[in-house]
Amino acid sequence: MKKIVTFGELLLRLSKNDHQRLSQGDYFTCKYGGSEANVAVSLATLGDQVEYVTRLPDTPVGHAGLMRLQELGVDCRHVLWGGQRIGTYYFEPAAGMRSAKVVYDRANSASSELKPGMMPWEEILKDAAVLHVTGITAAISRSSLDATLEALDVADRLGVLVSYDINYRKNLWQYEGADPRATLGLLLSRCDLMFGDAIEFEYLCQRKQPPYTATDTKFQMQMDEYREWFEDLHRQYPRCRKWLMGMRNMVASSRHLLTALLYSSDDGGKSYQLFKAPIHDINGVVDPSGVGDAFMAGLIHTVHAFPNNPQLQVNYSLAASALKNTIPGDFNLATDEEITELLANY
Length: 346
Hints:
Elements: E1 3-7, E2 11-15, E3 29-33, H1 35-45, E4 50-53, E5 55-56, H2 60-71, E6 80-81, E7 87-92, E8 101-105, H3 121-125, E9 128-134, H4 135-140, H5 142-158, E10 161-165, H6 180-188, E11 193-197, H7 198-205, H8 223-236, E12 242-252, E13 255-264, E14 273-276, E15 280-283, H9 291-305, H10 310-324, H11 336-343
Parallel strand pairs: 1-4, 1-9, 2-7, 5-6, 9-10, 10-11, 11-12
Antiparallel strand pairs: 2-3, 7-8, 12-13, 13-14, 13-15
């Protein structure tokens, strides 16, 4: 298969140990992450050829982040050096009835200052099968949004499949004239594969989701209502051929009920079917960061590994995401062998 390209901001994640609050303790633990980098690492771990494109400051912190990605098998040959700082976020994990907390520090980061014309997209995408982008890159600055649209223009011209994660982060849309719903919808109108959680779907289409209140694996999904929901979305965004929706019910901070739906066409959009994955009861969640990125990587991988098998595509994507809950940090390091073994138990 040709390479997969992901485009977005690499972040430095800072958190305290032992479930301490951000206001406690004396030391931070640092890890690298960011949605598009997470997808790249997951795909590389699954054996795919993947390139990650971003802009990083020419500092020891920037080079350390690049080295971590390269250690994990990600091609970073077109990373652009410049700017003063790397984007940062502070993460406080959930514990008991206390919810997780994220504090962003991304203003004026190297990646947020990206502009059209800075990336050689013709060179980057000339041998690519897929370009993956997210709503986060569109949220951090107007120029970053414009750079994303430039990449999509080149992808369309070269016939590259576009993958998109809604990734709505309401606290990021700070630039003048920002219109999150319209912009996220614009990106969705230009994609072929997409992922979002049910809350993001609801925000984008302004239609109430059927309740997902699973407390065990016997929960019955309201499939007719979901089908109507997807049909309505498809009428609004007819280009997309695969719509992957993740759903999570947090029974406790360490116990999540996770499932997914895939609305899929494998005949060029002539007909669509809705596929449901089994519910995974994850009792012992270690770190839910990057779970959506694991979903997205699973879909990108399986579209080529298991073409014309949408049931396996959604089951595999969910299994990859379920395993991410057991791995500390943003990156999903679950292998194809581990995902396949989990699939065999469902």
